[in-house]
Specification:
It is built from twelve helices and 14 strands. By secondary structure, the chain is of the alpha+beta class. Among the domains are: 40 residues, no CATH class; 102 residues, Chitinase A, domain 3, CATH 3.10.50; 129 residues, no CATH class. Strands 5, 6, 7, 8, 9 and 10 form a six-stranded antiparallel beta sheet that branches. A two-stranded antiparallel sheet has the order 1-2. Strands 3-13 form a two-stranded antiparallel sheet. Helix 7 packs across helix 9 and helix 7 packs across helix 10. The radius of gyration is 27 Å and the shape is globular. It holds the Pfam family Trigger_C.
Length: 400
C-alpha cells in the first residue's frame, strides 16, 4: 500500500529464494515471500522551477543564399545532361559517382568489434560525391582515392547531431568500391539554356528564374525548378509553402532538442534499473522497425536474430549513457506536465494509439496494447510540454 500508484509496471520481482519459501511453507503451512518493486523516482529541480525561465541557444544550419541555390540547381541540371564514363586509371575524386557496398561495426572500449550497425549498411549504394546531404560528415574524405574493386576500412565516431541511438558511438566502417564513374558534361553556355530550363534563350535568363526574392527574406526555390509548371502562380505558391513548412519543422526540431538537453541538466533523479531497461527496449524496437522499413527483404531468420534478448541487451549496454540522458529528459517532461496540469485530448490519444498499433502489425512486430498506449501518451505529453516551454523560454538562434 505504501507504493500504490507509484510502482513501475514490470518492475515487481520476488526477492525471497525458493528454498526459503519451501522451508516456510513446510513449517508454517503458509506461503510467504518478500517482493521488491521499483517506484517512480522523485524529480528534484536545481534551481526549483528552473524550467519556467529557460534561456536556450539554438544552433541552426546556415541558410542557403540565393546565388548558391541557383548555382546548385544549375549544376544539378547540367549533370542531368551529361553522361557517366567508367574511371580506369585513378581513384575516387570529388565530382565522381561511385557504387559502394558499405558495412559498419561498433568498437568497444577494449578495441574489440562488438556488433554490426544495420542502419549503416548498404549494398549497391550509388554515391554522388557532390551531394553529401545523405551521408555521414567526413565520410567522403575517408574514401577519397579508393579505386574500383578496392576495399577501405576506417574508424569513425558518429557525431552528436546524428541519429539519437548512434550519437557518440565508435565504429569501424568497411567500404568496397564496386564501380567508379566520372561525368562527361557539356559546356555551360547559351546553346544549352533551353535544356537547362525550357523556354530560356540564355544561361543568365535560366539563372534568374531559378530563384525569387521575397520581400522579407531570400528563399532558394529548390522545389520549384523540378516542375514543368514553373510559371503557374498556384504551383509556385504551393511549393513555396512546402519549403517554408520544411524549414520551420527543422527549426522547431532543433529548438526541441536544445530544450530537452537543458532540462536534463536541471534535474536530479535516482533512476531505477527497470526504467533504463524499458527505455532501451523501446529505442531498440524503434530501430528494428526502421530497419524493417528500409530493408524490405529482411528474412525471418535475420529478424529473429535481431529481435533476440541477447541483441537487445547488447544494445542497452552499449547505449547506457545515451539511454540515461533520455530517461532524465522524459522524467523532467512528465514532471512539468503534472505540475502545470496540462491535458491531452482523448480523441488525439486514441488516434495515435491506433496508428502505432497499425505500424507494429504492418511489420509483424509483437506488441502490448497497454504498453503502446503508455508510450504514445508519453510522446503526446512530451509534445504538449515542449509547446508550453517554447512559448515561455528565452530562445536565441545562431547559425553554424
Amino acid at each position: 500500500s505504501q507504493v500504490s500508484g507509484r510502482a513501475l509496471e514490470d518492475s515487481i520481482r520476488i526477492s525471497t529464494g525458493f528454498p526459503d519459501m519451501e522451508n516456510t511453507y513446510a513449517s508454517m503451512k503458509s506461503l510467504r515471500y518478500d517482493v521488491v518493486v521499483d517506484v517512480l523516482p522523485e524529480v528534484k529541480w536545481n534551481p526549483e522551477n528552473g524550467y519556467k525561465n529557460l534561456k536556450i541557444a539554438v544552433e541552426i544550419d546556415r541558410e542557403i543564399d540565393v546565388q548558391t541555390a541557383a548555382e546548385w540547381e544549375l549544376r544539378r541540371r547540367l549533370k542531368s545532361l551529361g553522361a557517366l564514363r567508367i574511371v580506369t586509371d585513378r581513384g575516387l575524386e570529388v565530382g565522381d559517382v561511385a557504387v559502394l557496398d558499405i558495412s559498419a561495426e561498433t568498437i568497444e572500449d577494449d578495441e574489440s568489434v562488438a556488433r554490426t550497425i544495420p542502419s549503416a549498411e548498404s549494398k549497391g549504394f550509388q554515391f554522388d560525391t557532390e551531394d553529401d546531404s545523405n551521408v555521414l560528415p567526413g565520410f567522403i574524405d575517408s574514401i577519397l582515392g579508393i579505386q574500383r574493386g578496392e576495399t577501405k576500412s576506417f574508424p569513425y565516431v558518429f557525431p552528436d547531431e546524428w541519429k539519437q541511438d548512434l550519437r557518440g558511438v565508435r565504429a569501424q566502417f568497411t567500404v568496397e568500391c564496386k564501380e567508379l564513374f566520372y561525368r562527361d558534361l557539356p559546356e555551360l553556355n547559351d546553346s544549352i539554356a533551353d535544356k537547362i530550363l525550357p523556354g530560356c534563350a540564355t544561361i543568365e535568363e535560366a539563372s534568374l528564374l531559378l530563384f525569387r526574392h521575397d520581400e522579407e527574406r531570400t528563399l532558394p526555390l529548390l522545389f520549384f525548378i523540378s516542375f514543368s509548371g514553373l510559371c503557374d502562380p498556384q504551383v509556385r505558391e504551393t511549393l513555396l509553402q512546402k519549403y517554408v513548412e520544411v524549414e520551420e519543422t527543422a527549426r522547431e526540431q532543433a529548438t526541441d532538442n536544445a530544450i530537452l538537453d537543458q532540462l536534463q541538466k536541471l534535474v536530479e533523479v535516482d533512476i531505477p534499473p527497470s526504467l533504463l531497461e524499458e527505455q532501451g527496449r523501446e529505442l531498440y524496437g524503434a530501430q528494428l522497425l526502421q530497419i524493417q522499413a528500409n530493408e524490405k527483404k529482411l528474412g525471418e531468420e535475420q529478424l529473429a536474430s535481431l529481435s533476440s534478448p541477447k541483441a537487445v541487451n547488447r544494445f542497452v549496454e552499449s547505449q547506457r549513457e545515451n539511454i540515461t540522458r533520455i530517461v532524465k529528459q522524459n522524467l523532467a517532461v512528465g514532471d512539468i506536465f503534472r505540475r502545470e496540469n496540462l491535458q491531452i485530448p482523448t480523441e488525439e490519444l486514441v488516434k495515435e494509439v491506433e496508428d502505432s498499433i497499425a505500424e507494429f502489425q504492418r511489420y509483424r512486430q509483437e506488441y502490448d496494447e497497454k504498453r503502446v498506449k503508455s508510450q504514445v501518451q508519453e510522446v503526446l505529453e512530451g509534445a504538449k510540454v515542449l509547446e508550453w516551454l517554447r512559448a515561455r523560454a528565452d530562445i536565441r538562434y545562431t547559425t553554424k
